[in-house]
Design a protein that fits this description.
Elements lengths: L22 H17 L2 H27 L1 H29 L7 H6 L8 H4 L11 E5 L2 E5 L26 E2 L8
Parallel strand pairs: 2-3
Antiparallel strand pairs: 1-2
Length: 182
C-alpha cells in the first residue's frame, strides 16, 4: 500500500466571520494558529491577522466616539438632565426630612443607595483623575447643583441645571453663582 500525500485546503470561508467584531478576533486567532500548525498557508494566516486587526479597529473607533463624539456627548447631556432632575428632587426631599440641605451628595447615597450622583458627561470620558460626580455645593440655606456640561468646565454657558417648576414651590437651588467685583 502506498501512502497518499494529500494537501488539505484551508477553509477560507471562515474569513467571513472575521467581519463580526469580537468573534472575528477569536476566529482570527484560530486561523493564525491553524494556518501555522495545520495548513501551513500564508494566505490563511493573513486572513486571520486581518480579522484581529478589523476587531481592534472597530472597538477603537467605538471607544473614541464614546469619549470624544459630539452626537454621543449630546446623548449623555440628555441623560445628565434627567438624572439632575431626579437628584434635585432627592436634595429637596432630604431637606424636608432633615430640616437642612445635605452637606454633600454622598449623604444622599446613605439615604438611597440606588441614587446616581455621577455625571454621565464626566463618566463617559473614562478619566480616573477627574472627579466624576455632579457639582454640588451647600451655600448657607441654599445650594448649587449642576452638570459641567459637554465642555467639562465649571461655570460656562453649557452647564446643565435641573429643570424645575418655581411657580408652585420655592426651592433652595442657586442656578449661577454671582461673583461681585469691587
Amino acid at each position: 500500500m502506498t501512502e497518499k500525500n494529500t494537501i488539505i485546503t484551508p477553509p477560507y470561508w471562515l474569513g467571513l466571520l472575521c467581519f463580526l467584531p469580537l468573534i472575528g478576533a477569536i476566529v482570527g486567532i484560530t486561523m493564525i494558529i491553524k494556518g501555522i500548525t495545520k495548513y501551513k498557508d500564508k494566505k490563511f494566516i493573513l486572513i486571520g491577522y486581518f480579522g484581529i486587526l478589523f476587531t481592534i479597529t472597530v472597538y477603537s473607533l467605538l471607544f473614541y466616539n464614546l469619549k470624544y463624539g459630539k452626537a454621543t456627548a449630546k446623548g449623555f447631556a440628555e441623560i445628565a438632565q434627567i438624572e439632575l432632575n431626579s437628584l434635585f428632587r432627592n436634595v429637596e426631599f432630604y431637606k424636608i426630612e432633615n430640616g437642612q440641605y445635605p452637606d454633600s451628595l454622598q449623604q444622599l447615597i446613605k439615604v438611597d443607595p440606588t441614587l446616581s450622583i455621577y455625571d454621565p458627561l464626566l463618566v463617559r470620558k473614562m478619566d480616573n483623575d477627574v472627579k466624576s460626580t455632579f457639582e454640588y455645593q451647600k451655600i448657607g440655606e441654599k445650594y448649587r447643583l449642576f452638570s459641567v456640561g459637554i465642555d467639562g468646565k465649571i461655570d460656562t454657558d453649557d452647564d446643565i441645571y435641573p429643570v424645575l417648576d418655581t411657580s408652585v414651590h420655592k426651592y433652595g437651588l442657586i442656578r449661577r453663582l454671582v461673583v461681585k467685583t469691587l
